[in-house]
């Protein structure tokens, strides 16, 4: 048996647990470190070692040999030899990928260069593209994910002539979407912060009977969405050496001593209080909109002071929010798909008249042009958003049918369809705006809203067709010029309207449109879905599938 075969046999015995490592002689081979003292210096010996390790099929043996050969052979020659050994190549690729993944949430690009060279040297460009995409979607931290995506995009440009078609476009679109989502998340967090609740023991400044000398009393302070309440605890309090860690171990019922209702325009800032008898550098001062002092609390530490100021400021800012932010709490936009991000944009950034939307880069029209969103998907998302915010007037204007001639004319205004797209993108913000007063709903807080359902119930049903059509909102004609609602199917639109409890007149209109277009749907190849109100009935789901006669199969087994 040659030295190479004997070495591989010893490695296999060790990794399979057939021998006791402690009982082996000192000159035995236990792992890849022992290979460096063997007389394996020639190129033929190393190739023979790779071949023998490949024959074992043991990943541990193969990896030990790869560690040794990769350090003692020139990198281009090493990559060239790996092509002849599939198991060794896969094992080495797996090892390099693991080196790129430092933790479960971060990606290290330091080891990426060796993996790139390996893929390129072995002409595995498809695997290289898959690996680069996996690195992008692996990192969960937004800022880190964007940095990795930028670096991967630059690396991909070097091999763009070898990658599958469309990969560079996919990477560029992902980087653009991620950057836009990060920018939107930063802006919207400032615009609509989440509700902050805090509770801690703090010293509250109060005035004596004479209102001349200030005194401080320990209180349990609780911050809620609407107020700051402070309580006096009747049980004994344990002193732990730090006022911020004061705890009530008796757990007796606390007695409310007072509260301060949060109002719009309140001013919250830090205060370095210096009195005659005490110095308190970590105080929080709360004043009303006119600047009159309302409450002073001692947070004891600079960190506590910063947290309380930020929390109270967020809750005060929420009092002046647009009602839509309060009715529909937002979620983080990072890693949203284009469709999800479009609906988010329609819901919160659809009205260009709002201050937070006026200069926003994620307006629906801009997203449609940037990511080339299909007109039918765009219109369907607009209908879903209108139903969500109960903007029935806009939804009715969107579903109004048009003749084929008017549709063709609107699509080729000025002989250039691109002009229509640009016009629709600039006016699209009015489609889902809240300028029209929606009907009240359990999740709506618009003031002065009128119940469209009750108002339409007083009108005779026969007047639906005879009533004059409502004027289409500004910019609606451009959006309707993109695609007709019949291209989506009135069955799906009717399902959305019923699910959101649309007014009877809109439901009647959609029912009539659905019946008129059902015959056209039956003549064309495709499918239509219609869900009845009673979803518990299995027969309520009706699916029609049109199969051409040329592919039909005789199913009569009589």
Automatic annotation (TrEMBL):
Name the Gene Ontology biological process terms.
intracellular protein transport; vacuolar transport
Q: Which domain of life is it from?
A: Eukaryota
Listed InterPro entries: PH-like_dom_sf (IPR011993), PH_domain (IPR001849), Spe-39 (IPR040057)
Q: What is its main location?
A: cytoplasm
The residue ranges of the PH domain are 195-317
Q: Which regions span the lipid bilayer?
A: none
Compartmental location: Cytoplasmic vesicle; Early endosome; Late endosome
Which Gene3D superfamilies does the annotation name? Pleckstrin-homology domain (PH domain)/Phosphotyrosine-binding domain (PTB)
GO cellular component terms, semicolon-separated: early endosome; late endosome
Q: Which residues form a coiled coil?
A: none
- Write out the entry's keywords from A to Z: Cytoplasmic vesicle, Endosome
Q: What is this protein called?
A: PH domain-containing protein
What is the source species?
Peronospora matthiolae
Lineage here is: Eukaryota, Sar, Stramenopiles, Oomycota, Peronosporomycetes
